[in-house]
Amino acid sequence: MKRPKSHKINEKGMRIFESAIPENWVANPQSKDYGKDFVVEIGNPCDELSGESFYVQLKSTANVKKLKTGKFIIQDLESRHARYFANVKDLPVYLIVVDVNSGNGWFVFLQPILLANQSWKYNRQISIRIPEDNLLTDHDALLQDVQNAKKWLRAHHPSAIFDAIEAKKQQLKHIDSRFEPILSYKDNCLNIRMCPTEFVPLTIQVKCTSATEKIRNVIELGKPATFSSAEVSISGSPLFDDLKSSEISLYPDKNHAILLFSNTSSISESTFRTSEFHAIVEGGTKQIAFYSKVEGSPLMIEVIINTEKESPASIKFGIDPCVWNDAPISQLQHLSTAIELFALLKKRGKVYLHLIKDGNPISSSMFEVDDSNLILPIYEFLIDIRKAQDFAKRFNVNPFWDLESFEKMRVELLKFHDLVDTGIWIGPCPHLELAGKIKPNSSEAVRQVVNDGKHYRQLLLTSEIWFDFFGEEVRLGKIVQEFSEMRPELGSSNSRNSGRKRKRQIASTPTTIPFRFIASKSCVQTLRFAKDEE
Question: b/e map of 267-292 (b: 16 or more CB within 10 Å)?
Answer without folding.
Answer: eeeeeebbebbebebbebeebbbbbb
